[in-house]
Specification:
This protein has six helices and two strands; from the N terminus they run H-H-E-E-H-H-H-H. The chain has 157 residues and is an all-alpha fold. The chain has one domain. Strand 1 and strand 2 form a beta hairpin. Helix 2 packs across helix 3. The radius of gyration is 16 Å and the shape is globular. It starts with a helix and ends with a helix. 34% of the residues are buried.
Length: 157
């Protein structure tokens, strides 16, 4: 299994072009949020408990597993990803009440537009998206962005 630095380096190989990098700063978070929204929209069949003002849903369950994945790569980086995941949950709760479309529809629109942006960015880059090499790169993309934030803040990962 690759360590976090090997994953980040491998992901970075197909993300050198400044335009593609800029596109990724917009599209990767948008895709992450949209996936959280799509999973949030799946009806939760079990007991409805309230956790920090939000009903428990599938998105929370999946993000718990995502957090475990990030923990296996880097404890410090996983903390940033946990905070990002909590923000995404909060944002989905806001979108669900503030936008007249159902959350799944809003998320699907965001997902589609963001992937179009991603593929355009890779066309500019002249390299295929990393996920065609290994599906795990879908999880590495958000961590790759987070590692830049950590570097800017002087936090090791």
């Amino acid at each position: 299994m690759r360590n976090i630095q090997e994953w980040l380096d491998a992901y970075g190989e197909s993300h050198q072009n400044p335009t593609n990098k800029a596109v990724h700063w917009i599209c990767v978070p948008a895709i992450f949020i949209s996936i959280v929204g799509l999973i949030w929209s799946i009806p939760f069949p079990f007991i409805k408990l309230d956790l920090i003002g939000l009903p428990i849903n599938w998105a929370m369950m999946v993000l718990a597993l995502v957090f475990i994945y990030y923990m296996s790569l880097s404890f410090r980086l996983s903390i940033g990803m946990l905070l990002w995941g909590v923000f995404c949950l909060w944002l989905c709760g806001v979108m669900e009440t503030a936008i007249p479309l159902p959350l799944w529809a809003t998320s699907l629109i965001i997902f589609t537009v963001a992937w179009i942006g991603q593929f355009w960015g890779h066309k500019v880059e002249g390299k295929k998206p990393s996920l065609f090499e290994d599906i795990q790169f879908l999880m590495i993309g958000p961590a790759w962005l987070m590692h830049f934030i950590y570097k800017k803040l002087g936090i090791g990962y």
